Amino acid sequence: MNLKNSKFYKRIQELRRFSKEKIRKDREQRTSVRLDMALSEQRPGHDSDLEWSSSPRRHISPRRRIKKTKTKKKSAGSRLTAGKDTVCSSPADGELQPDDGIQSYIQLNDKCYRLSCTRQLAGKDSRVDDSSISEAKSAICVSNSRYAMIGKISKTLGYKLVKETKLWNILWSDSFPGVELFKNMKRFQQINHFPGMIEICRKDLLSRNLNRMFKVYPHDYKIFPKTWMLPADYGDAMNYALTHKRTFILKPDSGAQGRGIWLTNDLKTIGANERLICQTYVHRPLLIDGYKFDLRVYTLITSVDPLRIFVYNEGLARFATNKYVEPTPGNTTDLYMHLTNYSVNKRNSHYELCDNDDCGSKRKLSAINNWMSRHNYDVKEFWTNVDDVIIKTVLSAWPVLKHNYHACFPGHDKIQACFEILGFDILVDWKLKPYILEVNHSPSFHTNEQVDREVKRPLIRDTLSLVSAVLADKRQIMREDRKRVKQRLLKTKGESLQRPRANGGSSIGKPKIDVEPEEELDSLAQQIAWEDSHMGNFRRIMPPVDATKAEYYSQFYGQTNQVSIFAETAASKKREDLARKMRLQIEEKKAKQELMLNGRNKTDKRKRQVVLLPRAVREKNRVQLYRLQEHWVPGFISDAEERLRHTWLQMRSEAIRSLRITESVYATLYEAGNLSNTDMAVYPHLYQHLQNGFDIKQHI
Ligand code: ADP
């Protein structure tokens, strides 16, 4: 039977048409409400008067979310509160008055802004036309991400999955994209990485930045264990080791997943030219059930200028799998006791998978909070300290982040061009003091265990709900851009298209776009309102809700005035010296090679001169050589000598095999990240084993 001819099918089609028609009519009749917002800079002194407040909301898909924009924005104003007093109370739904004015003050970085919101009935002139946004479906490109979950969640939120070549709104990539991509981004596009975030995401750069800040603010920046970058700081580290009896942890400068990490009490064992990060070992960590653990705190940055940081209330605690004992020379090699990396501990047979909150080698932050409450720790104060560590870590790279952002996106005026989820690894000591160990710019979104799914899925969902990609009207921006190009081509008289930008950012090859400062502030106000009303399970830590805290952090923005991040430090001088020495060595080598080549050329020339003998002589020589070759016989080969040679060769092969020299060299190259493609192709089995985490030096 043809289903399409059935009565049932026809009836369904009829009902669908009917409901569509009804929705269309409803839409036409409904009075649309728009929210007009403007930010203007205020003189200092007002910042403490008023502040924002927000409450977690349930998830709404961007598609539905956009359709609800009108109603949401209607209520956005009502969420503005002033310290104790509410600035403006929202009238009941339907009672909207034509020019409801809301005013508030917000502190952004070190400046205070006045925010004014005006509600207007549709039809009146409004600078923000949300009706056009509602028609477009946001598109996301996840083809550069290995996590299928991102695409799936985006789909459920109403995003359309597209290829990188299409006009996406959001590009989600696991790796850091190239500058070329930044350069070509449209004003409605967002990407999940900030240019320059590497400043805190590489161990060596992070320690350089934190050390620099520690020198200027010694009381505020005690947020990380004492760290030295070897070989530049070798002397300092040795001096410290002489006066302090401590255990040190040594890490490769750009390693991850616990690879190449070891503990030592004796720094003399380290070569003076080894490139390593040396850190004092936090020897009395907080223990739960006798195990050491660290915290993975997910942090979302939605803007660097002004700095806006959100921390996810749920996260992971990763446990070591052997009970902790303070380091002694006998136990420093027990990585299952001293390291808390999942990639290390999953190899231990004691790794515990558990669906219950209070057991297992991976637990939720909420379970840790419960444990702390049960043991009478002040959970609120602890998290305030963690937030402080996160803010200060980001602030240590703020000048670079700000500079890079403005250089890459001089015309991105509608929405922020970037957002980023960072994974902060925090170690807690027995006094509940948090230390920053590392920041990951692409934290793992693998969902191997139930606990991963429970944490990471909502995290992605809340992130995609919070980011302001939907606030940009793709079509309108495209129209504007086309118009601009047209104008530029026609070189419209009297109109300069390249007016200097308000923030004075320099571009990287992009034509500067005419951006009105007020327009930019309007967009910023919209972004702030959007983010603060779509926080889900995030909490905003920057700008802080508390005005005194905002004032406290504002001092760190001025770091460039006190010590330039490009200024020379003793370590940087040493590093430069080392680099200069290496450069000289390389140049010397090159010169030698060239000399040899030139010398050879000279001898060639000489030879040619010698060869250029009279023809008769040359012919005579040739005949003589031929005769010699004809009568050439091999010399005597001693059998005994030959047997000995064979035996030695066999012994050598046997030694290489039994001492696992190939495996050791291969593993060392792998750990140092120096394996070439050929190495991977020639020894695929070794590479496979290393990838699976086996220790090929010991077994296999
Ligand atoms: P990786 O990037 O290789 O994971 P980390 O710096 O995160 O390197 O260190 C790996 C593990 O080593 C951490 O999870 C932590 O358990 C332990 N660790 C690192 N630094 C210290 C330290 N200073 N004190 C105590 N434990 C540390």
UniProtKB/TrEMBL annotation:
Signal sequence bounds: none
Matching Gene3D superfamilies: ATP-grasp fold, B domain
GO cellular component: ciliary basal body; microtubule
Organism domain of life: Eukaryota
GO biological process terms, semicolon-separated: microtubule cytoskeleton organization
Keyword annotations of the record: ATP-binding, Ligase, Microtubule, Nucleotide-binding
InterPro entries: TTL/TTLL_fam
PROSITE patterns (UniProt xref): TTL
Basic residues bias (residue ranges): 56-76
Biased composition regions of type Basic and acidic residues, renumbered to the chain: 23-33
Pfam families attached to this UniProt entry: TTL
Protein family per UniProt: Belongs to the tubulin--tyrosine ligase family.
PANTHER family according to UniProt: TUBULIN POLYGLUTAMYLASE, TUBULIN POLYGLUTAMYLASE TTLL6
Protein name per its UniProtKB record: Tubulin polyglutamylase TTLL13
